[in-house]
Amino acid sequence: MKFAEKLLTTKSIYQGRIINLEEQTVELPNGQTAQREIVRHHGAVALLCLTAAKDKIILVRQWRQPINKTTLEIPAGKIEAAEEPLVTARRELNEETRLAAKQLEQIAVFYTSPGFADEKMYLYVAHDLRPVKNQLPQDDDEFLELVELTMEETDQAIAAGEICDSKTLMAIWYWKLLKTQTKG
Amino acid sequence: MKFAEKLLTTKSIYQGRIINLEEQTVELPNGQTAQREIVRHHGAVALLCLTAAKDKIILVRQWRQPINKTTLEIPAGKIEAAEEPLVTARRELNEETRLAAKQLEQIAVFYTSPGFADEKMYLYVAHDLRPVKNQLPQDDDEFLELVELTMEETDQAIAAGEICDSKTLMAIWYWKLLKTQTKG
């Protein structure tokens, strides 16, 4: 831990519905002090969902106010307090796609932006999807449209900037890796 | 733009060195209003750097205060005001690895967490790396260690949780895709 920074003080700046913001003063390895701006987030899940023929990926079209545009992203959602990521994943899969998976395989766990935020994301592949029997209520401030794209169509959507976030690119690259392994 | 949210009010909560925070009130497509918590960030660059034999990836070991641990990440850094991403990339490559690239090839542009932040990241592959002639000064609150890992060693570092952020996983998966293409 030779690079570890020592926490001196924490000041809460903001407590929101989705994120909290803190300012920390830390002591650096050389003895000097520095300020750190830290966004706290409960974490999130995301799901790579392929159609039964495995030739299309299921995406969600939605408005993203922080970037002021509509995006195509893999199904995803925030982890509620004390919720297991796998439970969140099954819930979001139901809410956003009306599908249930026989098995959810965790393929990656990662921080989305560890320089300023602690958001941790759990990425799953959903296996053996089928329509849900009981549809969970959707968030009342979310407006979604489901879209199925072939791999070629995802290339076009990436070039057009409609697919434009890290978790969705990761899911598509993972899908490409799966395809090369199946061929080999 | 049928899902577009209409901005009603913006309230500045915090203006920091790295991020700003805003609270927005928006009108939803159904006419209701909702609150949005938005982190503003200047954007960042990240670089996939392979050794000359292309058998190892160059990573940076550093402390990340938001997640309270040491990580192994690809070289990366924040875009300064009015800086071109390609200029940032060359600067960060020099500062963090003391290398210069004959060519930087952009392989992806993405938002790291579009649900609450506008941070946009430009990911490059660095081609034909060689030691720099003029070393730029390093940030005085950054303490770094360079590490070179084989693909197998990255698998171990991922399993151990030391490689744990989206951009670095993306770079490694892209490297794997490159390898399968070279073989094919």
TrEMBL record, chains A, B:
One of its GO terms (molecular function) is hydrolase activity. Keywords: Hydrolase. Residues 39-171 form the Nudix hydrolase domain. GO terms for biological process: nucleoside phosphate metabolic process; ribose phosphate metabolic process. CDD domains: NUDIX_ADPRase_Nudt5_UGPPase_Nudt14 (cd03424). It comes from the Bacteria. Its cofactor is Mg(2+). This is ADP-ribose pyrophosphatase. It comes from Liquorilactobacillus ghanensis DSM 18630.
